[in-house]
Design a protein that fits this description.
With 428 residues, the chain is of the alpha/beta class. It is built from 15 helices and 14 strands. The chain is globular. Bound molecules: pyridoxal-5'-phosphate.
Length: 428
């Protein structure tokens, strides 16, 4: 495939945008080569500036659960835009999407809309600290909760891809309030709680991790966190920015039957427009301004175009009863196809999958936490990535990311993908 125009555009972009991109992982630094400049997308495909077509497994890093340019979302945005793009005043639409979200997600009474997953998680911990009147939080190594200061401590996703899980610019004062536990390891959490008696406001966790590749919670892990939080008066925050409205209409809380105290959303909830949200029961949400003392605000929060896109998305997820099952079946099919191809060629690998999230780790041992995720063979991943790209298959340009399956993928697309893996596996 030729990437001439992408290459020229990348050079031009680097003069005026740091690294040529507005979010680091897009730059292909971990895998080398030229980032693909997108021109348009439809259904399961993204088209680049050189006219190449790719089967897309990134899907804007998660939002496009129903495929690109999903007509109900596009039409809702077009219609809304004609009536004004932002007011900075409350709208009926915000209440409508809030009512729908509250009806779909267990254990929440109220929801506040923001503009990104980062904002949602950042606001959720401020709320937890204000509510509990405690300062410290526990996060898990390899989990990513956006780029706000408190979370750039052993962070996953792009932070680990570029070897800066602890970013310069985060003050020691902030860092000391973020305690680090190991994913799927309750003992590590208990030790921190014991050592910081009555100082911990919240435990924030990706209830299915997606930012060190996909890592599902071990049996009993989420239940164990719930119990520890109940025993020690700590709030449990589920960061469902990736998993919300994706793994079930009510997210992991519904899938696993575990109640969180605060839930964060992003990605799917905005249908591809910039939306995040955090939600909880009344007693906690009423701590937020203007009702309560914890401040949180946004000029464009609840933006009508974003709310229209989100509403169209959530309505489809709510009404399409077969959706989650179809996604699950497609992901299982892909899993089996890839596993067979790699096994046939004796390529060491571990595939983790849950619902419509899947990742291929080039590691022999089970991948259950950050440490085991980093044992994957990055050189193999690079060959795999470029082999896929050259065959028109676009997966995330980092071994620490999840593939997102969309409903727009046909079985022909999946077969094309499996054939590509069969070919590349012979070279690995
Ligand atoms: C679990 C999780 N939380 C938070 C975020 C941050 O969201 P955003 O990139 O919209 O700020 C991400 C982004 O990938 C995420 O995966």
């Amino acid at each position: 495939m030729l990437y001439q125009r992408s290459s020229a555009l990348f050079k031009e972009a680097q003069n005026v945008i740091p690294g040529g991109v507005n979010s680091p992982v897009r730059a292909f630094k971990a895998v080398g080569g030229t980032p693909i400049f997108a021109k348009s997308a439809e259904g399961a495909y993204v088209f680049d500036e050189d006219g190449n077509r790719f089967i897309d497994y990134i899907n804007s890093w998660g939002p496009m659960l129903l495929g690109h340019a999903f007509p109900p979302v596009v039409n809702a945005v077009i219609e809304k835009a004609k009536a004004g793009t932002s007011f900075g005043m409350p709208t009926a639409l915000e209440t409508e999407i809030a009512q729908l979200a509250v009806s779909m997600v267990p254990n929440i009474d109220k929801i506040r809309f923001v503009n990104s997953g980062t904002e949602a998680c950042m606001s959720a911990i401020r709320l937890a600290r204000g509510y509990t009147k405690k300062d410290k939080i526990i996060k898990f190594a390899g989990c990513y909760h956006g780029h706000s200061d408190s979370f750039l401590i052993a962070a996953g996703s792009g932070a680990v891809t570029f070897g800066t899980p602890n970013s310069p610019g985060v003050t020691q004062g902030t860092a000391k309030d973020t305690l680090l536990a190991k994913y799927n390891n309750l003992d590590s959490v208990e030790e921190l709680i014991t050592a910081n008696d009555n100082e911990i406001a919240a435990i924030i966790v990706e209830p299915v991790a997606g930012n060190m590749g996909c890592i599902p919670p071990a049996d009993g892990f989420l239940e164990g966190l719930r119990n520890l939080c109940d025993t020690h008066n700590i709030l449990l925050i589920f960061d469902e920015v990736m998993t919300g409205f994706r793994l079930a209409k009510g997210g992991v809380q519904e899938l696993k039957g575990i109640a969180a105290d605060i839930v964060c959303f992003g990605k799917v909830i905005g249908g591809g427009l910039p939306v995040g949200a955090f939600a909880s029961r009344n007693e906690i949400m009423n701590y937020l301004a203007p009702e309560g003392p914890v401040y949180q605000a946004g000029t464009l929060s609840g933006n009508p175009l974003a709310m229209a896109a989100g509403l169209a998305m959530l309505k489809t997820i709510q009404t399409d009863k077969g959706l989650m099952n179809r996604l699950d079946e497609k992901t299982k099919y892909l899993h089996k196809g890839i596993a067979d191809a790699l096994n046939k060629n004796n390529v060491d690998h571990t595939i983790n999958r849950i619902g419509s999230m899947i990742s291929v780790h080039f590691a022999k041992e089970p991948v259950v936490d950050f440490e085991s995720a980093t044992k994957g063979n990055n050189e193999t991943f690079k060959i795999f990535f470029h082999g896929m790209l050259d065959r028109g298959i676009y997966i995330a340009p980092s071994a620490f990311e999840t593939w997102f399956i969309t409903d727009a993928l046909s079985y022909q697309d999946l077969n094309e993908t499996i054939t590509a893996v069969e070919e590349i596996a012979k070279e690995l």
